[in-house]
Amino acid sequence: MRARCCVRGIVAAMEDETGMLFILAAATGRAGELLGLEIRHFDRHSIKVEQSVWRSDAQAPKTQNAYRIVDLPSDVAKLLSGFVGDRESGYIFCTSNGKPLGQSNILAAMRRAFPPHISREVYLNSRVPPTNRLVCIGSKL
Fold this sequence. Notes:
Elements: H1 2-12, H2 17-28, H3 31-35, E1 46-49, E2 52-54, E3 57-59, E4 68-71, H4 74-84, H5 103-113, H6 116-124, H7 130-140
Antiparallel strand pairs: 1-4, 2-3
Helix pairs in contact: 1-2, 2-7
């Protein structure tokens, strides 16, 4: 029941970048990696995690295991392609001046989209591996 509520919240949030933030958060599992995604990391089928953002600064991931390619379900890849549009460079999620969003943006978006108990359960206590969460969300879209 709660999972359905979460997916409905994500789909309803697709009017702006919030929905795309949540879907890709399920893919990466880490806010800093999500915010570090640049358009060059997206090949229309997968995302390549090779940097993260902390306090608006790009940095290398903390471990070698953090470097990875995440295959996207076709529906999710299509949504991300539409979100990116005709942009050819820059961060996928950025401010009006091209800087990466801060982690506080993700937390604020979570508070707007979901009741606190659901946000906490889905994003802080999830025991489902990030790739499985993404496939589940993608199949519901």
